[in-house]
Amino acid sequence: MPGQFCVIAPDVKLGREVVIHNFVNLYGCEIGDGARIGSFVEIQKNARVGRNCKISSHTFICEGVTIEDEVFIGHGVTFINDKVPRATNSAGELQTDDDWKPVPTIVGRGASVGSGATILCGVTIGERAVVGAGAVVTRDVAADATVMGNPAAPRQS
What we know:
Layout: E1 7-8, E2 13-14, E3 19-20, E4 25-26, E5 30-31, E6 36-37, E7 42-43, E8 48-49, E9 54-55, E10 60-61, E11 65-67, E12 72-73, E13 78-79, E14 105-107, E15 112-113, E16 118-119, E17 124-125, E18 130-131, E19 136-137, E20 146-148, E21 153-154
């Protein structure tokens, strides 16, 4: 059930028993059964959030991101979908959808991404992996691994 002051476009596919808090912007995306979406979250077109996920407040999930089932996303997590972002094309005109293709990112089932993390495009975060708060993920994270830092690297014992 959406909170007040939410913008949910008609092309959004919402699963059953989804909880959406206030000030959320959803368009062209898919949200699985039982997911919880915190306040001040934006989820763009062609992004997917699986079943029983928790997306905490102030998170940005852009086009091309797939979040599999049972994933925790902390507060203020930012996903990026363009390796070389530009405002204009080679002719100096503002870019349109025809000028670039989003680079896909996958967050595997049961993974956890800590608050304030930044996830660059083209990476896969493996099943049950943990990304520490504030980490900058620049390459794939193995299943069951814990990474932290900038750039994110395996935790040293």
